[in-house]
Amino acid sequence: MKFGIDRLLDSPDLRKPLRGRRVALLAHPASVTADLVHSLDALAALDGIKLAAAFGPQHGLRGDKQDNMVESPDYTDPAHGIPVFSLYGEVRRPTDAMMDSFDVLLVDLQDLGCRIYTFITTLRYVLEEAAKKGKTVWVLDRPNPAGRPIEGLRLRAGWESFVGAGALPMRHGLTLGELGRWFVESLRLDVDYHVVTMEGWDPANAPGYGWPLGERTWINPSPNAPNLWMARCYAGTVMLEGTTLSEGRGTTRPLELFGAPDLDANRIVAEMRALAPDWLQGCRLRVCWFEPTFHKHAGKLCEGVQIHVEDGAYDHQGFRPWRLQALAFKAIRNLWPHYDLWRDFPYEYEYHRLAIDLINGSELLRQWVDDAAAAPRDFDALTLPDERSWQEEREGILLYR
To answer: How many whole angstroms separate alpha carbon 113 and alpha carbon 215?
Structure first.
């Protein structure tokens, strides 16, 4: 199969509309060709492409920042002599001066298929600014490694943020190119938007489903996205960022596990199975111990649970990471009603709303966890209508069947 960047590089006809125009690239460390050449370097080597600028999202164009709320500066690329503008530094939206540096913006970002991933919000912001300035945006499409399944509450009005670009469910099942189409339609943007589609992408193919295992090398799109297994879990485990529990940052398996020094993991798993065994399908849970080298609980032995989705027990349609992680929170609340679970700290420059609510796009999940009388069926009653409505809404924007 071919990703959008590879099709663009291989086809002079696809590149014809770029001739004579100033081209910019929005990319990150996973923006590489099939030969593992960074897209910026590959485009710079082409005749007829006039690279005028580059943009880096959160964590940087080449990948230099480890944690959230660690900004990247603007700089001049030493190899190509063009300005590299940070969209996670002094600004989140490109300024007028940044927009004036190009005619066509190529967007080549590997997404993880989760609403909270900030690259989605960056795409929305550049599309909005391009519409204001009469610029052209092309998305060089890449796979959604989490595939097509849908899960989660949709973001509620008023809860938009840098980790919530719109009324998407947590696991949206779209590629970045398709997300761009949804933004253009839902926001009614008058923008010259194109998708260089992939060739041969079939998200129903096992064993990788959304990701072409054995065909393409996995490159971390952000520092704590080390493999496909993390991408599968991420729509659930990202919620750990809003809690006092470790999400495994500072270990070699971040966002595939959770834990803390004061937990009894066996009791948690038993309570989860008693509450909603059907929410645990498609994966295997393993009680484990780990000691983060940095971040939450650094240097302390944590007891916790690893979510395994890398073996034959994985069921792509049955696995529901968002419900699984919510159930873990519910189990902890049931077992230890006064456990200090929700982390109260600034999250993505939001200072007045709890991180767990910002992550979920409303207070609904936290309220369900904290309500001793609320059962899993009540949570499904909230969530299933959102999932059905999104299934219908996204149908018209799918590019791959």
So the answer is: 19
pTM for the structure as a whole:
0.95
Q: What is the pLDDT of residue 54?
A: 97
Low-confidence ranges of the chain (pLDDT < 70): 64-71
Identify residue 53 by its one-letter amino acid code.
A
Phi, psi (deg, nearest 5) at residue 311? -120, -170
Q: How far is CA 48 from the centre of its chain?
A: 33
Residue 70 has what pLDDT? Answer: 62
pLDDT at 347: 83
Amino acid 348: pLDDT: 77
pLDDT of residue 349: 74
Neighbours of 76 (CB within 10 A): 9
